[in-house]
Amino acid sequence: MGQAFCGYALLIKKESVTWRESGAAFLFFAVGAGISLVSQIYNLPGDVSSFLLTWMLLCLPLIYVMKSSFASLLYLVGITYSAVNADYWSYPSTGSFYYWILLLLALPHYYLLIIKTPGSNFMIFHNWILPWSVTITLGTVAHTTEELMFVAYMSLFGFFSLIGETAFFEGRKLRTNGYLFFGSLGTISVLLALSFDWIWENIRSENFQIKDMISSPEFIAALLVSVLAGGLFIFQMKKKSFIEIIPINPIFNLFIIVFVIGLYSSIAVILINLLVLTVGILTIRNGAKRDHLGILNFGLFIITALVICRFFDTDLSFITRGLLFVIVGIGFFVSNSWILKKRKVNA
Description:
The chain is 76% helix and 0% strand. The protein contains 15 helices and no strands. The protein has a domain at 1-141.
């Protein structure tokens, strides 16, 4: 039935997006159901990962034959779940390496969406599913020197933020820009996690061997992602002045330096806290300059999160801690009131 629907869509309803997408979706699930039934009836051996891999490979042509974006989204979710199941839930398995090959095979369709239908809903969904998928799956490369994944993830989130600031997303709403969302929130999350001294103590307690570290998959992943992010950063710097770049974008460059320092010195935790505070202040300034409440409140959120982290990490008295929260609350109120008054005056 699925083949019949797809054939009808290709031969009779060539211009109908509804027929193409619904036929491809029906056939996509029919293939999965068919594989499951055959393996059940004949008691064929296998696991969830091999089942998903077979399913995704069989349905990959649907994306291009049917020109189906819905099949592309299902495919991305399927390969992500397959990689997660092969590695996170079967540790220390390394069966998720094929994810990156399967991801590359789906990118031409994403490129066609960018060229032909940049404002479509399918484009928006891809802008969220792709960074979500890569963020989840990048951790599957961690096996021996997991600490290097801090660098890999910081560079990845920096890469996402830079993509979210490209000309393609200029003037678009945040709900269409999953790259900027994951990049900004991910960067701050990693920095806040590393603002605790005990994490750095654990990192320094590891006996890193340079030879083993360089040959590890974590180092290779960190290097590749950092090179990609660094290349995009240099490309954007040629088109924009340093003042125009949002504060969170160049953080991954500074973080690499801080991480190397943190391998040998406890001063890294101080530098991370200063980095978070600086990003928060510059983000507030950027929001005020752009007259954008969302950016301004994100900067205030960064500082609030830092205060909360230090609330549980220091020996300050309850009075001092309470005053800090009051000051942050006043900051939220005053800054938002100032922006709103400024808008009324301009109006």
